[in-house]
Amino acid sequence: MGLEDAKTEIDHAFTRQNLKGPSFELTFAGATSFLRRRYTKDLKNVDIAVTGIPFDQAVTNRPGTRLGPRAIREASTLQAPDPPYGWPFDVISERVIVDYGDVAFDYANITEFPDIVTNHIREILAAGAASVVLGGDHYISYPILKAYAEIFGPLSIIQVDAHTDTWPDDDMARVDHGTMFYKAVKSGIVNPATSIQIGIRTTNIDTLGVNIIDAAEFHRIGPKAVADRVRQVVGDRPCYLTFDIDGLDPAYAPGTGTPVWGGLTSAQAAALLRGLAGINIRGGDIVEVSPPFDTSGATAIAGAHIATEICCLLGWRMREGD
């Protein structure tokens, strides 16, 4: 699909037949699927399924992340239809990436929501694809991890965040975006000793044994040293990457519910993610993008780039084989 196709075809999210390769389409027009990938529920031969979970009923502060998946998709169309910059391969052309749409749920029936998310991710994994999830508040990572743990056992997580999200909460039925990793560790689906949290800059005395590189240390040693430390901690174990957009400093991502100063720059985040090439990543998410608090759209743009980088990490791992 090239420039000539762009003159005659529109809405490649629906019309494109070849699921690999770039999509040349008017930036300001057409259906806003993620990176102009095809919208489909057919996961046959799909490598990566990008899906949205527009949920924000678990927030402790400002809501609005239910609008995150839509904003991230729209922002992704601003990226050039070229290979993602900084990578030695073109994941768009080498791997089949589709937009699997959003999970459907009853917003007024919160108790059934976690199981719906777990089943949604199960469907993707059962088809042999990896999931890249557009959130939504950070609670969604917990039911996602449940589906992954059913296949891979206890996972290592790589978490970029201002908050540890391991505050005590022994009521497993509670839906809270600040306690889900406490539950993930306590329920045995996450191994804290081989997990790492990056960019932390809020106080939580009990970290449950999770390794932490706080924001101050990150700024002191830099993204390459942090990436090296991640490799030491995670090793070759199956891991899941979860990126809370508030891991970035509010100067780069103001559109989030609980912003904290002193975070990563967008350049540092890019260097960190690219420095993780080759890890045994099995899936990932970008969460807490809240468009109502950023009229510029910069937060969603950062979210779209992060989701693209996660696709690249998955594509690189697939290149090296399972």
Q: How are the secondary structure elements laid out?
A:
Elements: H1 3-8, H2 12-15, E1 48-53, H3 68-76, H4 91-94, E2 97-102, H5 113-126, E3 130-135, H6 141-152, E4 156-160, H7 180-186, E5 196-200, E6 211-214, H8 215-234, E7 239-244, H9 266-275, E8 281-287, H10 298-320
Helix pairs in contact: 3-10, 5-6, 6-7, 8-9, 9-10
How would you sum up this structure, described in words?
The chain is of the alpha/beta class. The chain has helices at 3-8, 12-15, 68-76, 91-94, 113-126, 141-152, 180-186, 215-234, 266-275, 298-320, and strands at 48-53, 97-102, 130-135, 156-160, 196-200, 211-214, 239-244, 281-287. The protein is 34% helix and 14% strand. It has an eight-stranded parallel sheet, sandwiched between helices. Strand 4 (156-160), helix 7 and strand 5 (196-200) form a beta-alpha-beta unit. Helix 5 (113-126) crosses helix 6, helix 6 (141-152) packs parallel to helix 7 and helix 9 runs parallel beside helix 10 (298-320). It starts with a helix and ends with a helix.
Keyphrases for this structure?
322 residues, Arginase, Chain A, 8-stranded parallel β-sheet, 8 strands, 34% helix, disordered N terminus
H/E element sequence: HHEHHEHEHEHEEHEHEH
Number of helical elements: 10
Terminal Cα separation, in Å? Answer: 30 Å
What value does the average pLDDT take?
94
Strand content: 5-15%
Count all strands and give the number. Answer: 8
> Would you identify the CATH H-level superfamily?
Ureohydrolase domain
Rg, rounded, reads 18 Å
